[in-house]
Amino acid sequence: MQRRAALLLSMAILAGCRGQKGKSVFIEPSLETLIPADTIFVAGVDVDAIRSTPVFQKYLSQVRLPRMEDFVQQTGLDPRKDLSQILSTSNGKTGFFMARGQFDVAAVELKLQKNGLAQIPYSGYNLFGDQRRAVMFIGSRTAVAGPTPDLKILIDERHQPTHGLPPALRQAVQTIPNNRQVWAAFVGGLRGLDLGVPEDSNLGQIAHLLRGIDHGTIGIDLRNGVDFKGDLDCNTDIDAKHIHDAIRGVIGIGRLSTPDNRPELLRLYDTIKVEQIQKRVDVSAQVAPDLEDKFLDLWLKQGRARP
Q1: Which of 6, 105, 214, 285 is most buried by a 10 A CB count?
Q2: Residue-wise pLDDT tens digits, 2-59
């Protein structure tokens, strides 16, 4: 279950928040002002918009991304009930997990202390953790977890005009339609990013191949099955062809290895479209609700199919 849950957000990483205004995904301003200026990757999940969907109930409610795992363990908060929006950021070396919700801060902080986490006062804020990692609350609606030294820098710099999405990353985010409840954007390549993808899966193989991409976006609509769209921009036409052919190769081998008595798997492979347009590779898939389970199993199954 945990591995299946990781698929949807891992796909988003390989390429929040509610689309309330405008045509692109909406990032809650109180979260955006916390994003460091050196951020190269951002991913968002609008939990409120997908809480009642079958995919969330089956998979995303069990998701445990690396930074999210730390946050849940530290605070005891339940993503299924306590969080409304999630944002994950990285500069390629370190990153933050940010969340919006309605928190009983006093009760949570008391629990943190009972769990043995030290209270670290800093510039009017209380950090709970140790000298390596900590979590803090900003008011009763915003929580941030990450490396303790980075949290202190965030506090020092949060009101500076340089904070917020960097221009290149903002431009990428603005291309993601507001009907995508799970989304991500990155600039400057994927090297050094922890994508959280199972290495011994088909998706893990593709993730390894995508290290040469310069920038890209992913958006997933979960309201009626899985509607996935990824736009990947490479450094050269040759890089794009290599990635295009590699993804097509994984799909092709998967089709060839599908038993005759599993026609539903052929349907799944046929939903995946890969197109190269000069330096850009577009990947899309529209999976009907009755095939969601099989789609997740397909891309997380053990063993690597090599093109």
Answers
A1: 6
A2: 444 444 444 444 443 333 445 899 898 889 989 998 999 999 989 888 887 777 766 6
The Cα–Cα gap between 74 and 166 comes to 29
Secondary structure, 3-state, the chain: CHHHHHHHHHHHHHCCCCCCCCCECCCCHHHHCCCCCCCCEEEEEEHHHHCCCHHHHHCHHHCCCHHHHHHHHHHCCCCCCCEEEEEEEECCCCEEEEEEECCCHHHHHHHHHHCCCEEEEECCEEEEECCCEEEEEECCCEEEEEEHHHHHHHHHHCCCCCCCCCHHHHHHHCCCECCCCEEEEEECCCCCCCCCCCCCEHHHHHHHHHHHEEEEEEEEECCCCEEEEEEEEECCHHHHHHHHHHHHHHHHHHHHCCCCCCHHHHHHHHHEEEEEECCEEEEEEEECHHHHHHHHHHHHCECCCCC
Torsion of CA 11, 14, 17, 23, to 10 degrees: -110
Own/partner long-range contacts of 110-116 (Cβ < 8 Å, ≥24 apart):
111/75, 111/76, 112/74, 112/75, 115/74, 115/76
Rounded CA separation 13/185 (Å): 7
Nearest residue to 129 (alpha-carbon basis) of 74, 49, 56, 185: 74
Instruction: Tell which wins on pLDDT, 164 or 3.
Output: 164
Mean pLDDT of 248-265: 85
Sequence letter at residue 197? V
- How much is the pTM? 0.79
Task: Report, as an integer, the average pLDDT of 123-148.
Answer: 92
